[in-house]
Amino acid sequence: MGLYPKTEPYDHGMLDVGDGNHVYWETSGNPHGKPALVLHGGPGSRTSPNLRRYFDPAAYRIVLLDQRGAGRSVPAASDPATDMSVNTTAHVMADLERLRAHLGIERWLVWGVSWGSALALRYAQTHPGVVSELVLTGVATGSNPEVDLLTRGLGNIFPEAHERFLAELPADERDGNLAAAYSRLLESSDPAVRERAAWAWTDWETAIIPAPPGSVARFQDPVFRLGFARTVTHYWGNDHFLGDGNDEGVVLRDAHLLKGIPGTLVQGSLDFGNLLGIVWRLHHAWPDSELVVVDEAGHDAGAVGDDALVAATDTYARAEA
């Protein structure tokens, strides 16, 4: 099957979302097609032209955006002067609603990868009337157990890399919330401290989440590296701004709120997030979902996963027709 051919946006802009922030957005495909919103990962990554290719451009009006502080949105998280207190899950979901109103869209399919899947799930739970379907891959729910696994638990599998990861932190902060400890380093007034912390954080991410070369290469860009590390630690160190003391996390707890929203979950069997069984539990708590497990694939489900994602968007386009 494969991805659809490359397309170019027919419209784009910078949306004023308040708090001094302007979010970059673009639309491609069919201006009169089924609306679909694409949410990138991170938090703190950026959108990619390749993400348009999961949708039939003749059938979909494809909406991409760079979330607050990321990509072409301003102010950039890579700027130490950027106020991160107004970059939270609630702020980003409000941005999505502003963008939907700006584009005159009533309901849209929401497609998310990694953190984008957690954001999509919470957005659907809190704004169910505007989400027609969900298509999610590299599924995450933003829970504390997931963060603990990714920052500490995987140290048993990658001990050498984890030792280097811990070494960058003050000795008295190595037993607590590691993401929060790194976030404090990334807020330092000393550029050298920020730079070392950004390198150490992205080196650890590279060690635990095997990814295509292009994905790893982006960390060589010092601007991207700092903005990404600052944003992801800001979110991970603060319960993704979803925390309520529930060990399972609010997304899994509120899975029943997804009732009536069809969804497709495409997950690599070797994605470390599967060690917690969260995707399996989410699927079984959400009767309207389909779980597609891709054997011998990780966080990036690869070509087989791409085929499954395209099949899902094709199916939802036909249902709309």
Strand-helix topology:
Blueprint (H helix, E strand, L loop, with lengths): L10 E8 L2 E9 L4 E6 L20 E6 L23 H15 L4 E6 L1 H12 L4 E7 L6 H8 L7 H9 L10 H9 L4 H18 L4 H5 L4 H15 L13 H4 L9 E6 L9 H8 L3 E6 L7 H19 L1
Parallel strand pairs: 3-4, 3-5, 5-6, 6-7, 7-8
Antiparallel strand pairs: 1-2, 2-4
Helix content: 25-40%
Number of strands: 8
- Order of strands across the main sheet: 1-2-4-3-5-6-7-8
Mean pLDDT across the residues is: 94
Report, as a whole number of angstroms, the end-to-end distance: 21 Å
Shape: globular
List keywords for this structure.
single chain, 321 residues, alpha/beta, eight-stranded mixed β-sheet, 38% helix, globular
What would you say this structure looks like, in words?
Strands 1-2-4-3-5-6-7-8 form an eight-stranded mixed sheet, sandwiched between helices. The protein is built from eleven helices and eight strands. 45% of the residues are buried. The model has no long low-confidence stretch (mean pLDDT 94). By secondary structure, it is of the alpha/beta class. A hairpin with a 2-residue loop joins strand 1 and strand 2.
